[in-house]
Amino acid sequence: MPVINNIQELKKISLEIRKDVVRSLAEAGSGHLGGSLGLADIFTCLYFNILNHKPDNPDWKNRDRLILSIGHVAPVFYAALAHSGYFNPKELMTLRRLGSRLQGHPGKEHGLPGIELSAGSLGQGLSVAVGLALAGKMDKKSWNVFSIHGDGELQEGSIWEAVMSASHHQLNNLVALIDRNCVQIDGKNSDVMEIEPLKDKFQSFGWEVMACNGHDHKDIIATYQKAINRKKGPVVIIAKTHMGKGIKSIEDDYHWHGKPPKPEQVNAFIKELEQNQ
Amino acid sequence: MFTLKQLKPTRFGFGEGLKSLGEKHPNVVALGADITSSVSVNFFKEAFPDRFFSFGIAEQNIMGAAAGFALGGKIPFATTYAVFSALRATDQVRISICYNNLPVKIGGAHAGISVGPDGATHQALEDIAIMRTLPNMTVLSPCDATQTKRATIASVEQVNGPAYIRFGREAVPDFTTEDLPFEVGKGQLLKEGQDITIIATGHLVWEALQAAYRLEKQNIDVRVINIHTIKPIDEEIIIKAAQETGLIVTAEEHQIYGGLGSAVAEVLVKSNPVKVNMIGMNDQFGESGKPEELMQKYGLTSAHIAEKIIEINKQKR
Q: Any idea what the CATH number is for the domain that residue A237 is in?
């Protein structure tokens, strides 16, 4: 797939993805708006710049593997897949409906192209990414594994089992990204269960830690490129994001973690997204 | 008539099966959970050190990583004690492995009360119940070391998706032969009989056979069926036994809730309801003791099975 380097163009794609996230969630009547908007810029950079993939040949054997551990942000994942060519964006409006290929959390068996792993039970994706990266190294494959995690998800103990094993096995073909929006369903991470000092934690487990502004396309791409081109060990990118990014009235408000927009809010939200671009 | 060849732990059969798979299938890999020798994964590790990956004491991670290996085109074996592989990491097994329908093979070692002195914490008595409710999962519970080797090989060569293979620690009678066909999903009629049927799994199959041979002298004609595949279960052989012998006894080293007994009852209630008497652990935890002492105390020997059959047979008349 051709790589898009033009930042203005990437921003436009992010806007379209955000608009579809709002529309599809309003149509579904349930789902996770906050995190999906917060990850729109990162998913744009991945699917239009960083990932080596072929939307018209989803099973292409040399593709990079994207493991979405936080399945609840499926709306932004689906929108990125659709806009990069895996399927017609019109299908986004079937989200969460009976018989849809767009399950509430990604489910491969329903046939949507582009899903590497059916997932959504928090704390499992990094383990899968570790196994997949080891299989790739075993066969000296050129592809990389990119995993996407939430910050609240780091409260799961199994994540730290996986963190330990990734450095033990020196997985230099694994890049994890933490969506650091600092909130979860019950409130701020620091009130629910403190996860800091995050950088120290990962470093003490033998990981290289990088940081980026998760809404700055140039920074996201530069950080990913630095992460891909390193020589040894796993790397984690702590991406600072804002839940609900693009719609001021909901930004950073944890009440919007698992809520869809109401149908009467859609026009105002889309207008605001266009103005804030 | 089946005769005792030797006493041999079923875990050795697993280790031999795994090694033989390694020779034939270059994409088979094994993941270690610290207890590699104890669960016989060292057979594979020593033969194929480059295809063995250590994960330490972290069962949730090992199951997730196994799913990742499978996504990467491998056939991974994730093996640890059954209490951990079936219970500690159940959510990983359910979502990362079963929901994705990946060819991960899970070894459930040291299953049952016969683990002995380690006591209740390490005696897996609920694993069959949990594993058999997971969609896409195949559940194998072979009866001796020879059959465990066959089942291990079959878990790769006959099963495309995930499989759970249950085996034990102690040396138990090894009595089946290599030429006894092993087909996943097919029960085995080991002894004909017309009065009553014992359906058993794991090493209680040997105890069931001994009970049946003993009862011949008392003119009770007992049929013995080995269910080495708990899921998918062989409905035909079970229904036929119910129709022809009228009474069923099940025997397993597992809780009577949710295990083989329940699986057999589920088959019979919908097509041919007969009385099913279940021998197993009666909703209780085990304890420390020598394996044979525990089998005695909890009523899992051939003598107990024979006693039960005599009692039931009286009621029949």
A: 3.40.50.970
